[in-house]
Amino acid sequence: MIIVIKKFIKIIFSFILISCTSNSIDLIVFNAKIYTVNSKFDIATSFAVNDGKFIDIGGSELVSKYKSKSIVDAKGMFVFPGFIDSHTHILNSFLYKNKVNPSTDEKVIALKEAQSLLFKNGITTISEAGIDPDDIQLIDSLHKINELSFRVYGMINYSPKNLNYFIEKGPFETEKLNVRSFKVSLNSLGPSNNKNIKKRAFRKNEIKNIIYSKEKFEEICFRIAKSGFQLNTDAVNNLSNSELINSYRKALNGISDPRWRIENASKIQKLDFNSLNSKFIPSFQLGNVNNGAINNDKTISIDGTESTYINKDIIDWTGRVILGSNYPNGYINPLITFSRSLSSKKINSLTGSDFQIKNSLSRSEALKGITFWGAYSNFEELKKGSISIGNFADFVILSKDIMEIDIELIPSTQIIATVLGGELKYRINIL
Predict the structure, then answer these.
(1) What are the structural domains, with CATH classification, of the chain?
(2) Measured torsion, CA atoms of residues 157, 158, 161, 167, in degrees rounded to the nearest 10
């Protein structure tokens, strides 16, 4: 089996030199099963790439339509848009895992380690849930000298200082770095002696950790809404999700397309659905669902219904969801996130029982959750998240068809190759 795979890899990545003329395009991939994840969810067999972007998508006719420097016969393998992890703490994990105040050189080494991990898992873009100005500047500088290439959507750590600085500076965007959002973390919103809050608290500890008063959080929301920045709020329990939704609605009144995100949206209760609308994007972190997480979060709302991980109910109400790993608190592999969104069966749970099976996503919803909807949530759906003409040529080649195989086989599917902007960044290494 290993010999067969070795031969296959050699075939795939032995580019056939067809022409070196000045009018040649960079790359043609043909004889593949390509899930474009475009508006029609088309499946193609070939695409053409030039200057880091898709220029044509279709069938075998592309081979004769274009002169190309390189042609790749994918031998029927499975191609998907580059995966987008919509909620990571990967930079903090690598930068500060062993250092309180790492040097710039240490940060550079750590970022390169992070990059290797991402490409190995088919991830071409991360939404980093909390990043500071110094690290933003460092990443941008490394992009400019081509020492770093993975794409980053940076959520700025909220502080009054950071808010003032970036509101004055405005959003910042390059082809590989996009900074236009703030990240706020909540537990509960006070005051803790409010009888209604106590009634809606699911666990006693929900009313103990109050970070912001309702008034203070609303003040933050209104200021960010006025600035034009996006707000992504990490609400770790049922209660704070309820309160942030109400604050979002107030601040966004009259704003047509804010795309404000609700992190840890798996904690949203059905009783809050009437307050949800398409202006909000629920963000699910399913990389850490197992390991007893569901056992701890299987709470019952005051209307007597299960209120956590109602993923399908939420997507049916809002129209879209985005999926992330919450790495390092969850598995970085997006195929684990993908498979867990298809079934809420607890593989490593304490009880082994199933939970919220009726709220499993469809495979097309799950795939959009790690590709197109992730790009949409970052205001980047016209640049990435699908294999579409004009988009960055970010794609991943898989050993199996995750849209067809048994769910249990999805996490073990191999990443054959990861390509960013038409450049090979990772390929499987079989010794």
Answers:
(1) 2-82+391-427 (2.30.40.10), 83-377 (3.20.20.140)
(2) 100
